[in-house]
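Re: Re: token formats

Sure, here are both.
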Amino acid sequence: MTVYWLLLIPTAFFAYMTGGLDTTVLASNFVFRRSLWRLGRGNLWISNFRRIYGVGGFIKLLLVELVKDLIPVLIGSLLLGIKGHADAGRAFAGFCLVLGRLYPIYYDFRGSHASICLIVAAFAVDGSVGAAVMVVTALVTFIGKYLSMGAVAGAVVYAAVALMMVDDSLILRLCIFTAALVIVRHIPAIARVLGRREPRLSFREDITYKLDE
């Protein structure tokens, strides 16, 4: 039992702390060499980022997020793999990763949407589960224009598909706990969506910068 705790504690710590890291800050310092957070917030940020960096820029930003999220999952797999439970290590790391993303200690436990790390966590459990979560999250986000709706839809699918495809009871519980974290964290956002108070995601280009020229 002591050995398991010695493996679980560093996995949880590293996954949680990594999940809480702001991808925008990492990308600003190591990829774009520019303070991306100065481009604005919300839809304005997306419009300005697309105008400056285009699709290629979004791909680079996504790669930073994916690498950041994959590292703790791989570490969990390697550490728990020592005792022959690499699959449980990935699922546990995925849970801690999402927890860190939603409730980061760096930002007074006020995190952001966990869509990408939820997809990574799902793929870490099973390829089919991950594919289902990715497709549903992307479709709901694109059609509904709300990041919160996409995250919640992905979480519901994660739990539902895991119930059908995951045989290991421990891993299944971790999947359900991870999905529950995302759903509970987004309850206020969903309430704002229903009350039509949540700003919608915009894919239109912001051209207000031209007024300054």
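Second one below.
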Amino acid sequence: MNHRERFVRLFQGKTVDRAPFIDAMGVCNYNSCIDRWKTEGLDINADRKDVQDIVGFDYARGYFIYAKLLFYPEFEISLIKRDGDKTYVRNHWGGVELRKDNSELMPITIEGPVKDRYTWEAVKERLIGNVSERLPKNFADVCKEAQLSDLPVYTGDLPAGFFGALREIMGFENLMYLFYDDPDLLCEILDTLCDLWVNVYSEIQKHVALDYVFIWEDMCNKTGPLISPPLFREFLLSRYKRLTNTLRSNKNNTPLFFVDSDGDERPLVPLWLEGGVDIVFPWETQFGLDIIKVRQDYPTMGMMGGLNKHILEFTREEMDKELEKVPYMLEQGYYIPCLDHGVTNAVSWDNYRYFYARLKELIYKYPPKIQI
């Protein structure tokens, strides 16, 4: 069974030999992790790929087919101002981005290019058409390589999510007001995005079979969703259904849809499932999430993650305790164990290797028992 077959069959509830052992969150959050590990035994010339090879991961997330999934042509990146250790930059999606000196954190989008209907009219043409130009210049070669690969083939990712993209287009605060102040404009933007993604993904499907589409949302925090479930149902659900239904009906149909959202995702799970989503990720644990309870509530929902990234900062005994949930989750099927985010530079090279060596043992020892 190759990697591609194993991934798809697992999340379809079919017989597999084991769950995939993958680096779903990336080796680490920060380059300083690698710098630290080089003082603790990692080869001085090693990079993230070398770390993946040493640990023995099957792969990361699969074979990714890149596409430009927001504004095109993109905006010219330009400096707006400097303020002490802060830099404000106009990014390639037209938003104002805050970057801090010597910070390894992702830049924060504090303002989008759309504030009202007037500014929307000025940019919306950049979300329409140009499908072939949004794909890689060597698209034919990419598709051929993807098809020959034994990895799951996917597309999407940041910023392609119905909430995630809205936040980049509007900025968070303006977006929150728009749900109430101008719902007609909000619906027009959502429909334009849905049209764009249906067209781009459908074009990709003409040339290669996609195994999953990655929908990036990041629409929850530790206390729950950033919008209420009723607002999700009113504004987002029908667009989810259109996207998933269309791509599943196309030639080379996409069998799986994957949502990435940090925070407490539980209130949105029923809506994602109704909208055609198969897999939810990464199930952060810091607010007290019980991933076993989630599995019991949703026996056939695809899940990835659910292992506390901070536990790698502590003792082997504490890491072993965190891993006690894994055998049950593996045996239920529909689950790939991985961290709930990339590790921090507080994690030692010895702890990193120990945790993943133990996790790999469990994956091989406890294949799924429940199959359709």
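The mean pLDDT is 96. The longest strand covers residues 78-83.
- S.
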